[in-house]
Amino acid sequence: MTIGTVVATRRQLHGIAESFLAGPQYRATGTIRLAVRPDGFSDTTLAIAVHGTTLVWPGGSTALAGPVRDVAAASGLEIGPPAGAYESVAALDPDSVLQLDADEADVIYRCLYAGGFAIKTVLPESHPVLWPEHFDVAASAGEVNYGVSAGDDFHELPYAYVGPWDFATSPRTGPLWNAPFGAVHDLDLAADVDTLATDITDFFRRVEATL
Q1: Are 29 and 108 in contact (CB under 8 A)?
Q2: If residue 188 lies in a helix (H) or strand (E), which one and from where to where?
Q3: Mean pLDDT along residues 184-193
């Protein structure tokens, strides 16, 4: 595992989530909400999903490899971000070539799925959503966001976070509050999903106790 391959795979998966899942779903049913799965992620209102490095839709599947336009043609999907829902930051160029690393993809899926489990543990009434805009699984309670991000420009590898909505105007103090938007926790990318879920749950509860 290298940081470079994790980041490269994460950026491609982010684009896939936007263009192959969220975009078609939004145009068909008006929602961008995705769901985390143990081996990938899926739409919530259409039967389109990513399992490992394979795109699956009703009646077919294809490898997420090679030129984006070829994968789109094989799927028959009208790909592209959910225009009008938000400003895309990960749109896939039809001429770009997908080269997912299966092991690094599994790392990202493991972190996101563990995050969803931890959110349900701490917020049992919540419904964790994988948001394609930021490629993070999150839920809110009491005007506080709890989530796990696959990584971004702020923190390139997967991380857990807690972000009070009013943090910019009412910042908290203490060692846990280590980010411009709240609290961030690095994840052990070599850990299994159960260990990750326990670690993330503990982080959420430690931060929650300081709110």
Answers
A1: no
A2: none
A3: 98
DSSP-derived 3-state class of residue 160: strand
Residue 81: pLDDT band with limits 50, 70, 90: very high
Question: What is the percentage of the chain residues whose pLDDT exceeds 70?
Answer: 100
Q: Order across the sheet with 159-164: list the strands.
A: 60-63, 54-57, 49-51, 40-43, 34-37, 129-131, 136-141, 144-149, 159-164, 183-186
Structure tokens at 6: 């994790």
Decide if pLDDT at 140 tops 80: yes
Average pLDDT, the chain: 97
**Both structure tokens of 147:** 């989530």
End-to-end CA distance of the chain: 36
Do 46 and 34 form a contact (C-beta atoms < 8 A)? no
- Strand 60-63 with 54-57, pairing: antiparallel
Closest by CA position to 129, among listed 149, 103, 159? 149
| Number of neighbours of residue 175 by Cβ within 10 angstroms | 7
Q: Which pair of structure tokens corresponds to residue 127?
A: 């419904």
pLDDT surpassing 70 at residue 1: no
Report the alpha-carbon distance of residue 209 to residue 79 in Å, rounded.
43
| Helix spans in the chain (H) | 3-16, 23-29, 68-75, 102-122, 193-208
What DSSP designation does 65 have?
A: E
